[in-house]
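Structure ticket #2291
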Amino acid sequence: MKIGPKVYYRKTTGEVIYITSQVESPWAVETTKEDDMGFYPQLKGFDPEKVEVLKLGFDEYTEDFARAKSYVVNPDTGKLEFAYVDTGETKPEYQAPLTDQVSELKARQDNTEAALLALMDTTTT
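Resolution: structure written out below.
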């Protein structure tokens, strides 16, 4: 069984508190927020009402985490945002994961190419 990591963060600010490891094992068992907050020392002492969890798929955003300088969860959307370049500013510039941006650009490119081919078909016939 493959279980992706879980990102624990403060509900109000999106500050990431802890990210669990992903697990690949036939004996892996999915745990609850309560289980994790009682098990991981990094989560102990936090009020469960003020902490939220974002479950990720196995290997989801692995490359983004490796390349990013920092990351947060946008408290309004509940989605991860990454800062890839250290601008030297006190507040980093966060953006959607590059893997999501690349996927979106590929889809847009495919749609554009399909539209161009359709247009070429209508103009050449």
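Closing remark: The first strand starts at residue 2 and ends at 3.
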